[in-house]
Specification:
The mean pLDDT is 93. With 138 residues, the protein is mostly beta strands. The protein contains 1 helix and 8 strands. The strands form 2 sheets. Strands 6-5-4-7-8 form a 5-stranded antiparallel beta sheet. A 3-stranded antiparallel beta sheet has the order 2-1-3. It has one domain. β5 and β6 form a beta hairpin. It is globular. The structure holds zinc ion (ZN). The site of zinc ion has 8 residues, from loops.
Length: 138
């Protein structure tokens, strides 16, 4: 008897814990530099714009636009076998950072570059929740 494969999940560490803690609570947390005011993602220790170690966590708006996407048809990992075809999207957040995610709640052939999106959070496993995006209301 075989066990169904599961999708690989990120493993939060000390640096990224605020991101995943926020996701579990339904908030999209990003790092914001108190030195130059820039937002950054992915998680890092220093601001990529001014290199100051002055990054603090703030809740982002969760709003963004679809920058680009692709549709995955091949099963590159057995954990995704029941999900194909699925989209992999790059989303430009209002805060000025780009995030790789999936757009849910819409057929893949209805995706359009530039469409307005909003974040939602899907739980996976016991503790790791990942931000996904759906077409923005209104
Ligand atoms: Zn900075």
């Amino acid at each position: 008897m075989s066990q169904a494969a599961t999708k690989p999940l990120p493993i939060p560490d000390e640096l990224s814990a605020p991101f995943f803690n926020g996701a579990r609570e339904g908030r999209l947390m990003l790092q914001h530099c108190t030195g130059c005011g820039a937002w950054s993602f992915p998680v890092r220790e220093r601001c990529p714009h001014c290199f100051a170690a002055k990054l603090e966590w703030r809740a982002a708006s969760g709003r963004g636009t679809l920058y680009t996407f692709t549709i995955m048809h091949q099963v590159m990992n057995p954990g995704f076998a029941s999900s194909v075809p699925y989209n992999v999207a790059q989303v430009d957040l209002e805060e000025g950072v780009r995030m790789v995610s999936n757009v849910v709640g819409i057929a893949n052939d209805a995706l359009r570059v530039g469409m307005k999106l909003e974040a939602l959070f899907e739980g996976s496993g016991d503790n790791v929740h990942l931000p996904k995006f759906r077409p923005a209301a209104g």
